[in-house]
Design goal:
metalloendopeptidase activity, binds zinc ion, Butyryl-CoA Dehydrogenase, subunit A, domain 3, hydrolase, metal ion binding, 2 domains, disordered N terminus, 25 helices, two-stranded antiparallel sheet, 616 residues, mainly alpha, Neurolysin, domain 3, metalloprotease, 7 strands
């Protein structure tokens, strides 16, 4: 869930203070290369231990410790080359190192591929007995339990070998799709109302779909979706191949369905997925209320699908990186002095690559894998509010890693995707409330509130809509139904229209736009998108606890961060008082959205009646 800042360059001079210092990982590329060679030679030692896991408790502990140490070193090597590579994607030397890092990591996977099947072969009973005997196995307890859980879904050696041979082809639909979407379709050029011309590919679409000129944004939508619709048969066939492959693989491994497999991976109860979809459907009147408010603020009679992106209010305020730091620290005061001090120290080190530069990777991320060093953060800071919000978001990830390391050893420090986007969301919300409270004018206040609503639409509602569509596709594939591109458009169209209140006249969805599913690469990631919506829900619930319970809520939040990956994500959240299999957290998120709209409507009344007072 990364916000992608658009990239623009004044010149190529870079202020060193705003770049990261990778020499903390390795002083020189030569030192990096030596460490890489060492990892490769340690992989031989791991392979040599094949067949020894069941020999004794001591032998098992030796092997697990060796793997743990090697993976810690491998992460450090990989962190260096991938971070350096992202500074300039055109730099041949650093890209070569990046590839060597990739190869080393692939070798690591190959060298350890025998471990899980062998553990399953040794069996739960023997391993549990070893654990009682050997204290060095304690840090591996969760990892061992999690591996042993997979016994019913692991096949015999011959079948596993066959699947391994075919594993590359299983990923082909995604590769073919990305070639079609990113390089094969000849995107058309349009002329906008100001005379400017632009190619409407996915970047052009992203640039202009929120244009304040309604004729322009309709033209952009019509052009983009007409072009996509010409490829409906082939893209449908590619996606269908992916769905059928995944359905067969799930069946081959004794799962009831692809959904069962994906939830099993994180040990999540199926109620999490179904409760999310049910509750979001019940909340559609709230989404429709937002669309009506949007129509009013944009001044359009009838909302159409091409009216969902233009900003509600524009904000002419700059947030350079120093301002962003200062504001974020003030906002985080609700998390206590210790948090603020810890974060203040971290953000003033050279852990971040802040500004866009030629060749730099776009978007933003936090990378935690140089475990013995510290987290690194990549931004493309653009001095606007979105950049400030992204800054808070990425530092939510970084603080998660810092807190996790306080309590967890390497083995349980890294958390799953289901948990990862929760602290980042909470920090965005804390920032947004702080900005709203401290806004200097009604319009500025409306801007932050509108930003919050838009984030709920784009994450809570839209990602759940995608999740519902994805589930409908898998269910159809698992029933043995034929899925053509046309049929997918039909299924997507029904869901899209329901979510946007097409039949009630809330947002009119022209049939052409029901081809939108073709544009979403996540449908090749196997039930991934729902986690964006659950993360936002849990992040909101945890923030509500901070807001209403004070110190108890803050401690609860920090404890979740400190727990890292020491347990299954559902359990970790439940321990933090947020049960994602029940309606409560989802309803609280919807209530928050309604409260934002209550406040916006009040502010609009005030502004429109002309007696706007200074903000409180
Ligand atoms: Zn994130």
């Amino acid at each position: 869930m990364l916000f992608c800042a658009s990239v623009g360059f004044a010149d190529d001079t870079v202020d060193e203070r705003y770049t990261w210092d990778l020499s903390e990982i390795f002083p020189t590329p030569e030192a990096w290369d030596q460490a890489r060679e060492q990892v490769l030679s340690d992989l031989g030692k791991i392979e040599a231990r094949r067949g020894t896991l069941g020999d004794s408790a001591e032998s098992l502990a030796d092997t697990l410790q060796l793997i743990s140490k090697t993976s810690r070193d491998a992460y450090r090597v990989y962190a260096y080359s991938s971070l350096a590579g992202d500074e300039d994607l055109r730099d041949t030397e650093s890209q070569e190192r990046n590839q060597l890092g990739d190869i080393m990591f692939a070798r690591f996977s190959q060298a350890t591929a025998w471990v899980d099947p062998e553990l399953l072969g040794v069996g739960k009973e023997v391993i549990n007995a070893y654990q009682k005997e050997e204290p060095r196995l304690a840090p591996f307890a969760f990892q061992l339990e999690n591996t042993l859980r997979n016994a019913p879904h692991t096949l015999g050696e011959e079948a596993e070998q066959t699947l391994a041979y075919l594993s590359q082809t299983f990923g082909s639909p995604n590769n073919i799709y990305s070639l079609v979407a990113n390089s094969d379709i000849p995107w058309p050029e349009i002329t906008l109302s100001n005379g400017e011309t632009d190619v409407i590919d996915s970047q052009g679409y992203g640039r202009w779909r929120g244009s304040e000129n309604r004729t322009d944004r309709k033209l952009v939508f019509d052009t983009f979706w007409t072009k996509w619709s010409e490829y409906r048969n082939s893209v449908g066939s590619i996606l269908n191949t992916h769905l059928q492959t995944q359905a067969s693989l799930a069946q081959a491994r004794n799962y009831d369905s692809v959904l069962h497999r994906e939830l099993f991976n994180d040990n999540l109860p199926p109620e999490v997925y179904h409760t999310l979809v049910d509750e979001v459907n019940k909340a559609l009147p709230t989404l429709h209320r937002y669309f009506r408010l949007r129509a009013r603020m944009l001044g359009v009679e009838q909302m159409h699908y091409y009216d969902i992106y233009p900003p509600l209010v524009s904000l002419d305020k700059k947030f350079d990186i120093e301002t962003s730091k200062e504001i974020t620290l003030k906002a985080m005061q609700v998390l206590g002095d210790d948090w603020v001090e810890l974060q203040r120290e971290a953000i003033n080190q050279r852990w971040m690559h802040v500004y866009p530069q030629r060749g730099k990777r776009s978007g933003a991320y936090m990378n935690p894998i140089a475990f013995d060093v510290h987290p690194y953060v990549l931004l493309n800071h653009n001095d606007d509010y979105e950049s400030l919000s992204t800054f808070a978001h990425e530092w939510g990830h970084a603080m998660h890693s810092i807190y996790s390391k306080q309590e967890q050893p390497f083995e349980t420090a890294f958390y799953s995707t289901f948990i990862a986007e929760i602290p980042s969301t909470s920090l965005e919300l804390i920032l947004q409330d702080y900005m709203t409270k401290n806004a200097k004018s009604v319009d500025e206040k409306l801007f932050y509130l509108g930003f919050g609503l838009e984030s709920m639409r784009g994450t809570f509602f839209r990602q759940t809509m995608f999740a519902e569509f994805e589930l409908a596709l898998y269910e159809a594939a698992e029933r043995g139904e034929a899925l053509s591109g046309e049929r997918m458009t039909e299924i997507y169209g029904d869901i899209l229209k329901r979510y946007h209140g097409h039949d009630e006249g809330v947002v009119i969805i022209d049939d052409l736009y029901t081809n939108e599913w073709m544009f979403v690469p996540h449908f090749y990631y196997n039930m991934y998108v729902y986690q964006y919506a659950t993360s936002q829900t849990a992040g909101t619930a945890l923030y509500e606890k901070i807001r209403t319970e004070g110190k108890a809520g803050v401690d609860n939040y920090k404890n979740l961060l400190r727990a890292g990956g020491s347990d299954y994500p559902y359990q970790l959240l439940k321990n933090a008082g947020v049960d994602m299999a029940t309606p409560g957290p989802y309803r609280a998120a919807v209530a928050k959205m309604n409260a934002i709209m209550d406040e916006m409507e009040r502010l609009l009344e005030e502004r429109d009646s002309g007696n706007s007072r200074p903000a409180d």
